Amino acid sequence: MELLLEGFATILQPQNLLLIFVAVVLGIMFGAIPGLSAFTALVIMFPITYSMAPMIGVSFLVNVYIGACSGGLIAAVLLGIPGTPSSIATCFDGFPMAKRGESGKALGVCILYSFLGGTFGGIALVFLGPIIARFALNFGPYEYFAVILFALTTISSLSEGSIVKGLLSCLLGISVSFAGIDILGAYTRYTFGFSSLAVGFSMVPILIGCFAGSQILESAAQSRTKARISMQTKPAKIRGFGISRKDFIRQAPNSLISALIGLVIGILPGIGGNISNLIAYSFSKKRSKYPEKYGTGIIDGLIASETANNATIAGALIILMTLGIPGDNATSMILAGFQLHGITPGPLLFKTSANLV
Amino acid sequence: MSHEKKNIISGFFFLALSVFIYAVSYTIKLVKADSLGPQFFPRLVSFIMAQLAVYLIAVNALRLRRNREKTEKKIFKLNIPLIVTSVLLVAYGLLINSLGFIVTTMLYLFVQIYMLLPLECLKKRSYMIITACVSLLTPVFIYYLFYMAFNIFLPVGILG
Lengths: 357, 160
Hints:
The complex is a heterodimer. Chain A is mostly helical. Helices cover 67% and strands 1% of the residues of chain A. Chain A has a domain at 2-140 and 244-352. By secondary structure, chain B is mainly alpha-helical. Chain B folds into two domains: 3-67; 80-159. Chain B has helices spanning 3-24, 40-67, 80-99, 101-116, 119-122, 125-149. The longest helix of chain B has 28 residues, at 40-67. At the A-B interface, helix 8, strand 2 and helix 9 of A face helix 1, helix 2, helix 3 and helix 4 of B.
């Protein structure tokens, strides 16, 4: 506890708080622009931390990461295009709300629950990090396969009306991943002689193509028809974060379960926020009394997605800090940040640099 | 086009894709015989995909036959903005490296906004001036934002 307070004392110094604020704002800027990921933000910000003290440098990078993951919600709500893969499910209800003129409410709810999800994850990281990491270590290939299969089937169930079409879409997505080098055997497949396909398709262009491309085509198809949706809706007035106290209490179980899903998925290397928001959204829809309203613009979906993807960040940091395993390319940049400042992540980090944790 | 017909077309698309995935899996060069090698998973996916596609086609063909008497015949009309937008998106991807980001985006934005504007707006000069200004200034702003703030170099093309 003493070391924890010592860590807070360092962080709460005005110049450090300012640096953290700048890091979060820069991260949000990167996350809000579709096409720029948390990884891009970290690569660009990495050299800035050279001259910083270890604790400040690492917290700067972590805050850029958090900001970039959270910033994705802005594009998801306002444009219907997820700024980052971790805010895919935010589009489902955020964009319909924005179309109704409730963008302020949608953004307010997303920001509040991003904060709550992140705080939940942070507390779990500090107090339960090593225990959770030990549990995650028991996951072998079978468990990984089960989690991925579970994720794929739950995502398929999100498709309205026909589960067959959902499964086919899922298989289409899997087929896209075949291009490139087979991870297990290092065989090159489905590249058709193009060397640029050897590393496979990048996630961000696919995401933009799917969401932005489909939206442009939809707008074009409706542009000269009477069914065209008017975006010139009068914005609704909001108070606070746009959620009443009654709704906040009512949403507590939804947010808590989503945070737990996010945390657990975040710990598993290689899965992360891309999946956690979809699983949390799907789970929230399944246990809801009004699942038919999901996708029409209700806060339940936003809460599930945003709480989960922010809790995932803490999950990814748990496995990074306790075992030194980066879950994705963004956390591998944070790992590089640790090494740059002479900090070795691992089980001993909680003893040697508890104030940093 | 009716819902069932759309589903049948989707079904045929997936069926063709599954055949394609299965056929291409034979081109993967193996160093040693491995039953669970790089060919296994694509073949498994193509097999499941084909089954689901056949199911989708069959169910919707039956529904279509049942509903044929009830449905009225709709006149097929080409959706020009949709076709132009599809062509624009493909052309944008093909031309961005040779023409550069600024020129390609300017051209794309102008034509795309023109296609998305309601017909009554096209007759007003003010809308066209705004469209031209947005098309000219936005790519320049984005280019310099990426260049100055993020150190990311977008294709320069003919302007380089």
